[in-house]
Each structure stands twice: as C-alpha cells, then as structure tokens.
Specification:
It contains 15 helices and ten strands. By secondary structure, it is of the alpha/beta class. The strands form four sheets. The protein has a four-stranded parallel beta sheet with strand order 1-2-4-8, sandwiched between helices. A two-stranded parallel sheet has the order 3-10. Strand 1, helix 4 and strand 2 form a beta-alpha-beta unit.
Length: 431
C-alpha cells in the first residue's frame, strides 16, 4: 500500500476515496518471489489463469553494477520467458525494453527484433552464459581479496564497460552505446527470444515525466537529460560535451503506459509472432540537444533555484564542447588553475578553504564522469522509425480511444512541456 500513497495515485484517491483500497484488493494480487521463486501450488494456479504477461522490471542505471544488470535485465527476464511458456492460456508476453539496444547508429533505425547471438559489429558471438561467468569470477576474486564494498561496486560497474566485451568497441577502441549496462543487458534478453509465442517488444526511448495523465509532471527518478538540467539549475554544472544538433529522443511516461495498454488490446488474440514498437519522438517531433539546453537555461534564468540556505542560485552560460579532448582542455584552462590556487591557499589558511576546494574538485570530476557516461547519447544521430507504433496509434484512433490513450508525440509542444511541466516536476519531486 506504500505505492498507493504516492502522488501518482492522488487523482484516484480524490475520485474513489475509501473505495480505492477495496478496488486495489479486488484487482491486484501481489506475489512475492525472487526471479519467480513462487511456491509450486500458487505457480500452478497462475499458469492456469494468466493470459497476458507484461514485464517492465529493469535496472535502469546506465552505470549499474554489471552483475546486478545481468541478474535483473537478462536472467530475470529469461525466467519470465520460461514461466510464460508454462501458461496454458497465455495470449501474449509484452516486454518493455529500450530503443537503445540499437547501439550507436545513424539514419533510420528499424523496428525489428534482435536474434540470438547477434552483435552490432557482426564479428563476435554473444554468449550470455560466458558474460555471467565473467561477472561471477570477477566478484569471487574481489571477495577473496576481502575488497571493501565500495571497491566491489565500482569494479562491477566498470565491468560493463570492459573491452573484453568485444562488441562494445569498434576497431579504434571507441565504445558503443551498448557498453551501458542497462542497454547491454536488455539487448542480451531480446536476442534469446524464440518466436513460439506472441511476443510484443516495446522499446521506449528516454522516458521523462508525464505529459497529461494522471496529471502533468509526475516523475520518479532522473533520466539522462535530467542530470544536466538539475546540475545547471543548482549552479554545479555549466558544461558538457555534445552537439546542438544531436537528436535527443525523449517520450513522456504516460505515453509509454498508454502504448502498453494499446498494444495489449490490439494483440489480444493469440498468435505466434514477434512485433516491435519504437515508442519514440524523433521521427514525428524531433528534439535536438540545443533545444533542451535553451529550454533549461531560459527556465532557470526566469525561475532560479533556491538553495538549502534560501539563497538564489545565479546561472551562467552553458557550454557544449565537441569532444572529450575539448572538455579536458576547457577544464585545464578554466578550472584547474583555480583548483591549484585553492589547494595552496587552503594549506596556508589551515584548511579553512577545504569546502571550496572539495566542491570545485567534485564539480570537475562530475563533469568528466557524466560526459563519459552519456557520451553516446550526447552525439546520437539516429532516428527511430515508428511505423509499427503509428499503425498501433491508427488502431487506437479507429476505436475512438486515442484521447484516453494518447501516445502520439506529434501532439507535444516541447518548449511548453519542458518549461512548464518537466523542469518544475524535477525541482518538485527530485529535490
């Protein structure tokens, strides 16, 4: 019931009052189980009754521990797949993946499934068991050395970016987007699918706060673009790498939910095929990085952040640099000299400037870390083809359900959405 108490269910609480709890008890039956470790009697009953499975559980951090990402995104989803094949009445398995399983590509990216063993560069065979074994061996090695938990976490996060995973690198050593642990582990699961059941794969892009339902601006957690928006508003970050023409494909959370419902209705009859939907905006209402930067710069100039001491944070110009080399050069010229001055002044003044020195050092390290982490998205040049999704929208329109279950990105006014809905939501719910 803790989930029901959140703001997300506020509209239902106002509408139904005390009846909301009765509705929840009648319609939702929570089942405890780690990787579907459900007791046999309950599992047998579920297998006889379930007709639709929606799997949206995922570890979504781009720098998640690789063992955690494999366990949840790949192996956890495979357990769902195995369970679904035991359900005698099953009409469909709907899996929420990510559009960025495509890796770093330019041009039009098609809505097509990945196949077992397929890799982006075509040179290596993907083996989930081998990658899981590598993660387990690394973890055992760390435990044998009695490594501190912080060291273990860092090592397991870095593992997802390790060049041992050949398809993460091209011939020059440039890391592909699927070096991100979230996209990589989602990709692993998609490649293991067999077409002996009706499988619907929804691939949303970067999910942001709700556009309309249940109210504008609900959000839980920060996404790629949000990190830079909040960092800028708080006066802690005014630079990163990227190009103003880079395509930033985002989609509001309620449109993703609406697409899930629409897909379940459209595919309610049992079949044995796989359909992929890109739930995206780049083909219908393109948004560039330069646009987003202008939106949040304008917003915080007009509505400045108030810090914990009640003081107004004054924002400055935001710098987009064209490479990691440019970022390091900028830091060397504009930041490192001041850091060195603070270092020596702090020594002379008996550590009285330690806070200033530490804060500047953190800002420099944060800018470098975020640029490295999000680099593939900050230079992305691909457009997600959403022909299948548009057909699904047409079906929804024909049934006169498009007002209730709208997931058409062409209806979004991006400037209004960011300035009046999304950025205020970040300020309210994240901080």
């Amino acid at each position: 019931m803790q989930v029901i108490r959140t703001d997300l269910f506020g509209v239902l609480r106002e509408k139904l009052g005390a009846n909301l709890h009765a509705l929840i008890e009648d319609t939702i039956f929570p089942v405890a189980g780690d990787n579907l470790g459900i007791n046999s009697e309950l599992k047998d009953e579920m297998c006889k009754e379930i007709d639709i499975i929606v799997n949206s559980a995922a570890a979504t951090r781009f720098d998640e521990r690789y063992d955690t990402a494999i366990r949840i995104n790949a192996l956890g989803a495979l357990n769902i797949l195995k369970f679904s094949k035991q359900c005698s009445k099953l009409n469909m398995l709907l899996h929420v993946s990510t559009a960025y399983v495509c890796g770093v590509k330019e041009g039009l990216i098609q809505e097509k499934p990945l196949h077992y063993g397929e890799t982006l560069n075509g040179e290596f065979h993907l083996d989930i068991d081998a990658e899981q074994k590598l993660a387990e061996e690394k973890l055992k090695d760390l435990q044998a050395r009695n490594a501190a938990e912080k060291e273990v976490t860092l090592a397991m996060r870095l593992l997802g970016f390790h060049p041992t995973f050949h398809e993460n690198y091209d011939s020059s050593g440039q890391r592909y987007m699927d070096g991100q642990t979230h996209t990589r582990s989602q990709k692993q699961w998609e490649r293991c699918l067999k077409e002996d059941l009706q499988l619907i794969i929804l691939r949303p892009t970067i999910i942001l706060s709700t556009y309309k339902e249940p109210f504008p601006g609900w959000i839980e957690g920060m996404r790629t673009t949000d990190t830079f928006i909040i960092g800028y508003g708080k006066g802690k970050q005014n630079l990163t790498i990227g190009h103003k023409e880079s395509i930033i494909d985002v989609i509001p959370a309620d449109m993703v939910v609406n697409s899930i419902i629409a897909a379940m209705v459209a595919h309610r009859n049992r079949s044995s095929h796989t359909t992929v939907y890109h739930i995206s905006s780049s083909s219908r209402k393109r948004l560039n990085m330069g646009d987003i930067v202008q939106f949040f710069v304008d917003h915080f100039k007009k509505n400045p952040w108030i810090d914990e001491r009640g003081k107004t944070v004054k924002v400055t110009q935001f710098h987009l640099l064209d490479s990691m080399a440019s970022l390091h050069k900028y830091i060397a010229i504009h930041c490192k000299p001041l850091l060195e001055i603070l270092k020596w002044a702090n020594l002379i003044l008996c550590q009285r400037l330690q806070t200033l020195h530490s804060n500047l050092e953190r800002r420099i390290n944060r800018a470098i870390r975020l640029a490295e982490l999000y680099k593939p998205y900050l230079f992305f040049k691909g457009l997600f083809n959403d022909t299948n999704a548009e057909i699904l929208r047409m079906v929804t329109r024909e049934s006169n359900a498009d007002d209730t279950f709208n997931f058409d990105p062409s209806t979004i006014q991006w400037e209004q959405y960011f300035k009046e809905i999304h950025i205020p939501a970040l300020v309210k719910y994240i901080f």
